[in-house]
Amino acid sequence: MYFQPYYPYYGQQVNSQPQSRLIISPIGGGTGINLPPIGGGTVPSLPPIGGGGLPPFPGGQVPPIVGEPPAFPDGPHIGGGADHGPPTTPPPSYTPQSNQSLVSTFAIDSGSMRPCLFRFTYVWLENGRGFWFYPTFVGRQSIAGYRWRMNRWTYYGTDTNRIRSFQCT
User: Fold this and answer.
1) What burial class does residue 54 get, using C-beta atoms within 10 Å of its C-beta: 0-12 exposed, 13-18 middle, 19+ buried?
2) pTM metric for this prediction
3) One-letter-per-residue 3-state SS of 48-90
4) b/e map of 60-88 (b: 16 or more CB within 10 Å)?
5) H or E segment at 124?
6) pLDDT tens figures, 49-63
7) Which of 22, 33, 64, 140 has its CA 20 to 30 A from that of 114?
8) Beta-bridge partner residues of 133
9) What average pLDDT does range 8-36 have in this prediction?
């Protein structure tokens, strides 16, 4: 048994019978549809808000500067939130000894790392890897800064629950 296809968009079944269509074209090849001229109409405009500028921000806040990366909402506001960049010198040439008595079964508290901001810090991760780190941001559950990798500083961030221990100089 053959069923005709149903197209719900049109709300009807397609008739498989060919239909003859009559196309009426005005003399001169036009479409027969009167469209408004392009560029000839006007677009209604709204009155300017606040004297033609942008609407004010709630609480009188100043909008961020265009081109500046957004700040982390829970990040420290040291130096006005400016990006301090990586250190200009390499980290110390020694590797500190891991103090196993400081290692806990819980993730470190990010607040305990705040005194290490903008200081050379040696970090041991839960996977056993250790590296020199220069923290520039300490959040509630994450840290970010620069990691010493292949004789240069690269930007790096991680969750605090991945850190086993750390020691800042």
Assistant:
1) exposed
2) 0.51
3) CCCCCCCCCCHHHCCCCCCCCCCCCCCCCCHHHHCCCCCCCCC
4) eeeeeeeeeeeeeeeeeeeeeeeeeeebe
5) strand 121-125
6) 555 555 555 555 555
7) 64
8) 121, 147
9) 55
